[in-house]
Amino acid sequence: MINGKKVLALLGQPNSGKSTLFNSLTGLKQHVGNWPGKTVEKKEGSFIRNGEEIIVADLPGSYSLSANSDEEMITRDYIASGKADAVCILADSSQLERSLFMLADYAGIQVPCFLVLNLADVAKDQGKEINIKALAEKLSIPVCLLSAPDSKNYESFYKCLDEAFDKKTLLDSAALEKAYEAIEGYSELKSIIPDDAIKGYSSAWLSAKVIEGDKAACEKIIPLLNPESKRKYEAVVAKIQKGSVLTGQCKFAWIDDLLSGVVNKVQKKAEFTKFDKAITHKVWGKPLVILIVIGGLLASFIPALPFMGIGMGISALIAPLQEALLGAGAHPIVTGIICNVVIQSVAYIVQMLGFVFGVTFVFGLLEEVGIMARVSYVFDNTMARFGLQGKSVMPCLVSFGCTMGGAAGARVIDNWGQKVLTIAIAWAVPCGAAWSIIPMLASNFFGAGAVIIIVAILLIMILHMFVTANIFGRILVKKEDRYGMIMELPPYHKPKVGALLRYVLGRTKDTFLRVMKVIIPICLIFWLLSYTATGLPENTILYKIGSFIEPVTKVFGLNWKLFTAFIASSVGKEGAVGVLSALYANTGTIYGAVVGTNAANDIQTLLAVIPKAEALAFMFAITFNVPCIVALAATYQETHSAKWTAIISVYYTIFALILAFIAYHIGLLIWPV
Amino acid sequence: MRNLRDLKVGSEAIVSSISGDARYLSRITSIGITPGCRVRMLKNDKNRPLLIFSRDTMIALNKKESESILIEEVKAV
Ligand SMILES: Nc1nc2c(ncn2[C@@H]2O[C@H](COP(=O)(O)OP(=O)(O)OP(=O)(O)O)[C@@H](O)[C@H]2O)c(=O)[nH]1
Known about the structure:
CATH superfamily of chain B: Ferrous iron transport protein A (FeoA)
CATH superfamily of the largest domain in chain A: P-loop containing nucleotide triphosphate hydrolases
CATH architecture of the largest domain in chain A: 3-Layer(aba) Sandwich
Strand content of chain A: 5-15%
Strand order of the largest sheet of chain B: 1-6-2-3-4-5
Order of helices and strands of chain B: EEHEEEHE
Distance between the termini of chain B: 22 Å
CATH architecture of chain B: Roll
Number of domains of chain B: 1
Number of helices of chain A: 32
Structural class of chain B: alpha+beta
Bound molecules: guanosine-5'-triphosphate
Largest interface: A-B, 46 and 40 residues
Shape of chain B: globular
Oligomer: heterodimer
Largest sheet of chain A: 7 strands, mixed
Mean pLDDT of chain A: 87
Number of strands of chain A: 8
Helix content of chain B: 10-25%
Largest sheet of chain B: 6 strands, antiparallel
């Protein structure tokens, strides 16, 4: 119960359709946050059943209830907290035997539950027939078949739910406990471990966990034992070997018994499709994944277009509004803040969000269809070098187009530390905006030498990723959390476009609100710093600060103008050249350049006045600077951590300045002043 | 005895024993690989995880870790 409302918790292995069920039940009434004090994403929502509001909690976790990860610990603690009035355990009917493992691992927990055999449509296509009634009798809990995407046919699901709530149905685990008795030491443990050493967990369940070497369970149990029991306990534990294998065999034997006579035997062949052959191919697999990402990026622009239109529409309002306000006698600063800060940022964010929407949607689609798991397989070895799973390659590739899209795409990574690390290294990938200005600048300044610069940028990018992975990886992905791949490659599923669209729209709205909170203050500060009543850059606060610290920034090869453009490039890279034009050639304003309202860039003037070594320093500085504030905000949105977003930003700023320093001094050797 | 890594593509085997630390054993068990279960090798490429089929499921496994899964080869059905 939470505030007098009934709580339903969803539990299931990956690919059992948990998210689909959660989304169907709650629709848009869902909230994504963090588990208190943890970095694991918490999904909660609600729906109305018989006029009563019911809270749904999506329990995080993977294949079992052991204490191997934060996710699994949260799930266990949640069940122990007694908040859930019923737990809905999901299994995949098309892989029934394996996916019932979660049910077997749950057996012994004294919280009411019911079993949902999802993907019933797929099982039916396999010719599988499951006798639900017989299964329910064996387990003494409600059982139903379900096709989670088919939200019109949820009657039997709701019936099970009602029954579990009303009758508080507990899973019958006697047969499994009987099987455990064959394990040496089990009976002795069971006799000394009290029920409820962890609330809601039977002594049988706890004994099995002790046998499995579950540290979290042992730590809870040991203090409760009297000295004599403790001695016995230690003697038993010392003799146990490969506990998980022993209990695992019992669990699967129990599942076999459960299913015998309940399910007809259908032989399922490995479905290794043509596409699987291609995408897992030794040679062609990786290029194919990259092609898919490029295709996905292009496809992302289609749903992004309406957003861009809206954003431009909002932009178009600014000029008339500005005139009207000034005409009505409003103070220029007030007008500036309303028009240039608030409305301009909203317009900018809406345009950018289109892309976040597109990427989240396309990636969501790839994940749902099952392609993401293949990508993980293909890039496992490559990304393992960074301490990451194979999927992390996707955000990095997307970041060539747009870092913000990369950060948003990191959603598909299910472990928080790995997600943050992925985003941190994806920032090192120069984005589309950098690629649109650097080659142009480089060829103007260095002619054919531009090629060398681009190669250098790519090499530094790789180096940067390694260094960053090393520095942050130690903290974010601990050594003991780095283990080899054990992952299901699910069969391909037809995606539920409608549900996904609704979910992504909800997420985009969330992102919009969060991003606004970050961007408006930053734009406001930046606008104030670059405000000039006379139109001369020398009147801005930016100039005053810039020229004051110039002796320091000069060390990095950046005079105050270049340094200002460098700072501006962390707001938006597209604007960096415009800022230079504004400062060197007086075309447009600094602020206007950054938010994209300045018209012309005056490269010719820049060529004449910026020394080559400084230009070189500047190029490296902006390429590897903080990508842009929208990327920063997206990073905050995905990581839920202001601390880590700040750490990564500061780190990137410093790294960029160090690179500028090196580039500048190399430049001085080539072109001495 | 041979380990899972040695199994040729297209061949089938029965798992005879698994060893490793408690965490590994718990993870490998929860995805359905236990002594006595049947596995079929789908892909065994250099520098890639193994791809096997077991209990109706396609599973990718780290190669190095899979050396601790011992098998007895059987005729494919
Ligand atoms: N045909 C069919 N497909 C389903 C059913 N339930 C879920 N799916 C699909 O299976 C895929 C995985 O479903 P999810 O809901 O993402 O599974 P999950 O358990 O949340 O998995 P994770 O997100 O990895 O935790 C999606 O493509 C769903 O559309 C079902 O009953 N029938």
